Fold this protein.
Amino acid sequence: MGRPKARLFCLAITAALVTAGLSACSAEPKSGSSGDGETIRVLSSGLISDSLLQKFKDKTGISVKWEHISGSEWAQVLQTRVAGKTDIDVLNVQSGAEFNKYAKAGTFADLSGEKFLDNITDVGLKPGIIEGKNFGYARNLYGIGVFYNTDLFTKLGIHVPANWDEFMAAAAKIKADGTPPIVVSPAESWTNQYFYHNAIAEFADSHPDFMAQLHTGESTWKDNDLFTTQIKRVEDLAKAGYFMPGSQSLKFEDARIAFTSGKAAMWLMGSWALQAPFNPAGFTPGAFPLPINAAGEPAARGSSLADSMIAVTSWTKKQDAAKKFLDFLSQKETVAQDAKEQSIVSSVKGATGDFSPYQKDWNALIDAGVPFPDDIGPGVNAEGPNLLGQIMAGTSGASQVIDQFQKIQDNDSKVGY
Amino acid sequence: MYHPLAGDGAHARRPRSGRPSRSGRPVRSRRRFEAGFLALAAPAAVVYLGFLVGPVLAGFYFSLTRWDGLNEPIFVGLENFVRLVSDHQFIGAVGHTLLFAVVIVAGQVGLGLGLALLLNRPRRGVAIYRGLFFAPSILSSVVVALIWGFIFNPLVGVLGQAARALGLGEGGLADVLGNQATALLGVSAVVIWQFAGYMMVIFLAGLKGIPADVYEAASLDGAAGARRFWYVTLPLLAPATSVAITISLAGNLRLFDQVYLLTGGGPAGATDTIATLIYRTAFANSDFGYSATQSVVLTILVTIVVLGQRWLASRRNRT
């Protein structure tokens, strides 16, 4: 081959490769070509069973491609996919900071007036309402409280603590018996927040303007005495040595293992922890709300979370199919199966379901639970628990943490959350 | 000194190839060559500009904004940089990043050199050992974190069990990653373990490049053992050492995977690096403008440290 021909050949090969590469980048997945009907795509950090999706297909002829993204990658995948307006028809995101951010950016279609919303409880609808419009609903309800080893409590003659002093006394008794009272898992810092979760919920419930005033700067976190007291109490717990030794490097799953294997007597967590694998080793686990009340005050309530928001993207061309799917997920028969398979409590009106052999205490806790406010900013949501980790590690005191908390709040407010 | 292209004008006017092209039109031929070269380089240049230079420049712009990553960014000038100066979390992360870099570079380069010296001589099974030591560097960081996370786990980990069996109690070895004093060293050990084999390969290549007659001359002069290593091997390995340090330094100043997967930056921020903080600021706190500011500082830091190291190395090589 002569040199000009060789050069031409190289150019042709390069051009072909570039064309192939670019066309691969731009090629749209054939999401609508399932063969026998339409296909919608769901992006979710949660799970759903294939049999439920098959039921939906049998009923409507619409296939659902449920794309589950694991927790560690979820935030960046969601961000990039939404920013790029990729071919997602339905989004299943966390309530609160995450849902609010995307809703305010016009990510979700307005579902106000859709009939299937009538199937959802008010608690399930509330986190989806932004500026009077309904952008989605919460699929699940969770309770937050204290898992405890009922057998150990009985053996030591401890009754369920009705106030903070009793909680501390119980921890002292358990520690004296040789069992670590509380397991924590600061290596996944979000798990720390349940020490102040119901304090924030309770205060927001009794001071309905507080959260809005936090955003405008009219109030600060120091004004929330339930919250500040709780931060100080975590310091007390750390100083008293009530956290399980070696807890600092534990993650959620490790803490679940520590509690279910009987290595720690109590664990502050949400009812989602009952999802498999939750196998207590020879004892019966119970649950009670974290008693943030002082002696003589009314009994504390646990906090509740309406979560796993389901919404239709504003750019989907398959809005009808997507709405049919949301309708399907709001039916009692659907959620009964979902509850059993995913060990969750549904937000659908009148839904009942056996989701765990240990659900009795949690049912009561969820029913009486005070809803956690859904307008906490993402900075406070993510960094707040990190700060609590500093108290647990003994590197910061309560007053420093409360100051830092406010700084993060100020940044959130500045960015517009 | 005589040079074919220097001196009289006749030589200087001749084409660089030293002879005219077959067509007798050297200028046209060169232009055609350059056009072909540009056409072939263009796709790579477009990709490089679009996916590397572009985002870096965009990052500089976003560092001057307040941005949630979705809505229009708001220009705030140097506000984010002012915030950085008093941000204890960021200052701590810079400190940890530099400490990680020092510990890991020293460990990787030292261990890599040691392994290369051990495995440079032709011995039985040497290829197997080289493969074994190199293997961790081709493992995914997720796999490495899973393996070491299990070893370090205070509940079920091998290290914890061994520490308890030896009566060392609950602190120290039983909870390396949960202890503020040891977590940074624990993560460093994992990164050193993962990439020491990679450094070994660089040093092995450097050792192969040292002529045997230099060693012969050294032994004739009576140099052996440590003296031979210090005065012959080490100076002649300077280029390989420089490459190893540069690669290790550039990689470890951006340390993310192993920290994120093993400790998440904890306990209580003791292993937070600039990279883990950038990620958290962007994706957990949704503060993309501030995250871009942190990224700009990291870019400048990596550039200064790596260029400084290269400058020092080249200066040393000259003298």
